[in-house]
What does this fold into?
Amino acid sequence: MWIFLCFHCQGSRKIEALSVAKRGLYQFYLHETLKNDEFANLPNLRFFRGYEVSLVGDFNNLLTSLRWLYWRYCPSKFEATNFHPTNLVVLELSWGHISEEWIGWDQIREARKLKVLDLSYCKYLQRTPDLSTWVYLERLVLKGCGNLIEIDPSIGKLKRLTVLNLDGCNFLRELPEEIGCLQALTEIVMPNTLHKLPETFGNLQSLLTFDVPNRQINKLPYSIGGLVKIRQLNLSGCTYIKELPDSVGKLQSLVELDLSSTSIGHLPDSIGNLKQLKVLRMRSIGGITKLPSAIGLVEKLEELDAQGCCSLTGEISKEIGRLSRLRILDLSNTRISGLPTTVSHLSNLQILKLEKCPELKQLPELPPSLTWLIWIPFYSLFYQSRIGALSQQGTLVNTLPTSIGTLSQLKILSLSCKYVQFLPRLPSSLRELRLQELATTQSPDFSNLKNLSILTFYQCSLKLSSVFDAESEELRVELCKLIKLDSPLQPEMKRLRLLVMDRCEFLPEVLDLSRMKNLYKASLTLCRSLVEIRGLEELGSLRSLLVVGCSSLERMSDLSKLKELRELMVKYCRNLK
It folds into this structure.
């Protein structure tokens, strides 16, 4: 039975749960007073929730059945006597006006069966109270205790503690050595301001996760190798960490390791001992210049993410070919010059990302398991200024491997085609295709791409018919120069539903859409050379038409036959008649 907002209840032996809040919404500095005799007839009360209430009087032999006390905003003055809830299991004092000097601690310590103590957001708490009598405690929550500067060494007595939450304890600079005595601890949430870990930290043999992103920790103790059950180690954003101790190789249960945005200069060879590791993230580490050959010994690795390691140079070690379970390999935004031929041995590789790799001039034979390939070498003055002596000629990619056509599982393909004279036949399995900087007078052959859903051309220069030859559901053309050199356009585009053309140049200046019978939405923006749009009257399924910023546009087809049209926006087309 639950009673909410109940004031001065007379009690009932049947009541097991009671919720009480103060009267008067505007009495900010007053607490509702509950006297001992108001609990006299509640011998079976197991749960009590009080908001801004004061307990007053002698509680001898009262609340003996209480298991859960939720006392939010409890006052700094403790007015109860003989308050000994000996069967209490959960004590929540969040947002309380209490400090380590609070008189209530002396009486509540008699609750020796306590398993959960929640002191979240107790802003007056500078030190934790003596915890030694709560030997059955399993969860200690100090989240948001912004003025906490010290954890009492008695925490070492809590042999059954499994969860310690210190999130938001931003004045806490160190942990006591006794923290290493918490043999049952499986989870610890660290504050942002902790500078170092005690050497005893490695004694936490039950710890399963150590998640400290964007913290100020500057060094990991060598003893960290003692965390034999840890499955996840997240150090991302810990910019003060400059090295990993060799003992990291002793983390035999480690499944996920995130070193992104740290300052480490190399991976220790002992990383090869991490036989259970499946995910290694090391994004944006400026000091990493190579991957150790020992990486090939991490036999269960499924994801290797080194995106943004701008100092990673040379050819990737051939030992990477031993990672038979690798599914994701991301080497984007690096300066690698080559992939080893052993990449073809990665029989489970599905995603290969090589975006903005200015020194990567060619690809080896790739495994047929690939479903997503991005290869955009990228060259710009930005890279020239950072790389120094790199010659522009050294970055050119003028041929694409014909083996791309054999990747029968490939679903997504993004290619930079600058300086490429010939586009090889692409695999029929493709669902998404993005071509960047393709400039060719030869029409690419898309006739076999029957499964294509999204086709994107970006900064390309090619014949208009090349754009419309492919059958897809979405066609996006951005910053392209489209030249109509052949006979009038005639292809049927039965599957096309969405057409987006942005900042394109047309030569001649006419666009005919009459063959896109099932087009649902068309968007033409900032196509400044476009003079005429034809064939709109044939688009019986068109529901949305946007023509914006086409400053040279003079003529459009009659729209009166478009019975399904629901959205029409034509603006900033000053020459339209």
